[in-house]
Amino acid sequence: MMKINELNRLNPDNYNPNEDSILVHLKNGETFKSTSNNIFDFHTGGSSKLISFLDAPFVFERINASQSQQSREFNIQASGIPSEATSVLINCIDFYDGGGTSTRIFEMFHYLNQEKTEQARYYKNYTTNKKKSKNYPYQDTVQIWMPIIDQKILIKFGGLLLVDVSIEAIAYS
Amino acid sequence: MDKQINDLASLSFDDFDIENNYLLVQQVNQTKKIKLKDAIAIQDSASNVNISSTGNDGNLITELSGTANNQIITYDLSSFGVPESASAANISLYFNAQVTPALRFHYYNHAQATEGHYFEMNFSRARIHTFNLWLPVDQQSIYIKWVQQNATSGKLFYLGFL
After folding, report:
1. A 124-153: CB under 8 A from B
2. Which residues of A touch B132 (CB under 8 A)?
3. Is residue B53 domain-resident?
């Protein structure tokens, strides 16, 4: 009878994770064979998509300067994102159309843990060169991946000046 | 006496060594072993776990200006090696405009979608900027409806998939 140590090495080029069997030993003592693909599908909840886009954006809030320094806990359940998701792709569209030469600021922190001791910062500070006119706005879009913490996105707005930003979920993973 | 499978102790997570541990693999009429590291790499590749670049030239649009037509355009990524299982594409959008730059477009989950997601950029002075975006992939393609392009020049590059 051949022992494990005596088995030949399998050339990786000949390994098929969809067809080759590997042994799975259960806690109750039973042993079955499965495939690596099946185990991976179980691990990922059977979803073949690693990033899933919502059919339409889910707008959490549209913010302006009056929300400066405010905190938010956006619950993801209403957005259609499943509870198994671990992160959300947030689309931030600045629709501000006021133009002008004044300084504009969009500062936003998102927390990386429940205790809010770790955070990431998104910061834009800019001016334009035209007198105040709706013909010369500065509008912009940025995508930011944020972690889901206890089914929530944890955000604190920093400085907000002359902005009109839609904060919306568009995808998850 | 040789150990039976039932007699084996469980390997703790901390003791996994992907360089020196092996998985037993049963194929037709033979059993072999494969290094855990190799098995994981093959599984990652099969499952698109990592952001994958195909290594091909991903130039989707060489001249951005003038392609706005308010219809959903399908950009087939299959020639870049994007597999059917891909769920999203990473896109680089290079934009160069001398006067009142503007760029607005919708992107969709599939060609027949009636709702989608939105990108908007508008500025009052000359601007050169590169945007990096994730777009949904369906049937190896991305779907964009250009609404407005005020650009001196611009390019849309495919970078990778997940």
Report:
1. 128-130, 136-141, 143
2. 143
3. no
pLDDT digits (tens, 9 = 90+) for B81-106: 888 888 999 999 888 888 778 889 99
For chain A, counts of helices (H) and of strands (E): 1, 10
Measured distance CA(B86)–CA(B138) in Å, rounded: 8
Please tell me the pTM assigned to this model: 0.78
Is A109 part of the contact surface with chain B (CB cutoff 8 Å)?
no
The answer as to CATH 2.60.120 being correct for domain A52-172 is: yes
Q: What is the CATH number of the domain that holds B85?
A: 2.60.120
Q: Which residues of B touch A36 (CB under 8 A)?
A: 39, 42-43, 46
- Expressed as residue numbers, the domain containing B13 is 5-47
Query: What one-letter code names the amino acid at B30?
Result: Q
ipTM: 0.78
3-state secondary structure of A159: strand
pLDDT tens digits for B51-73? 766 555 567 776 676 666 778 99
